[in-house]
Design a protein that fits this description.
It is a single chain. The longest helix is centred in the C-terminal third of the chain and has 10 residues. Helices cover 24% and strands 19% of the residues. The protein has a single domain, classed as 2-Layer Sandwich (Alpha-Beta Plaits). Strand 2 and strand 3 form a beta hairpin. The strands form two sheets. Strands 1-4 form a two-stranded antiparallel sheet. Strands 2-3 form a two-stranded antiparallel sheet. The model has no long low-confidence stretch (mean pLDDT 97). The structure holds iron/sulfur cluster. Iron/sulfur cluster binds next to helix 1.
């Protein structure tokens, strides 16, 4: 499953990193970014939870 974080929308709340640290981490701009291009199958539920929990809807999954 491809994943992306819109850097313009991220407000650095950290929720996605708390929810799914296997997929998200901080970057040099103190924004969250995805550390994998494709979410592993066993991480999809957590990644989806992180996307739904993002307060600015910065995370795109498809
Ligand atoms: S949950 Fe959304 S706003 Fe918060 S750090 Fe992650 S991408 Fe940024």
């Amino acid at each position: 499953m491809p994943i992306a974080v819109d850097q313009e929308l991220c407000i650095s709340c950290g929720a996605c990193i708390d929810t799914c640290p296997e997929v998200f981490d901080w970057n040099e701009d103190d924004k969250a970014h995805n550390i994998v291009d494709e979410v592993p199958a066993d991480m999809e539920d957590q990644a989806r939870e992180a996307a739904e929990g993002c307060p600015t809807n910065a995370i795109t999954l498809d």
